[in-house]
Amino acid sequence: MQPKYSHHWPEIVKLAQLDDKDSRKKLRAYALEACRLSTQSFGLFRRVQEDCTIDEAGVTYNLKAGDEVFANLVKFKVDSR
What we know:
two-stranded antiparallel sheet, elongated, 3 helices, alpha+beta, two-stranded antiparallel ribbon
């Protein structure tokens, strides 16, 4: 766990020791968020299925069916705000 998230640890421990539906639901939410923040894969290659235009960070990409693209999951999973 990154230090900036360590203040959540006492609540996570508490929830793990309880055995009720609400606690399990909250604990599951913590686990899903941890998975989101701790990317297991850096990205995926995908093949474009149909011609399209993608705008990303002020750059326009004109993609054609059959082109291969790399989806950066590290950037995708982190809110830039």
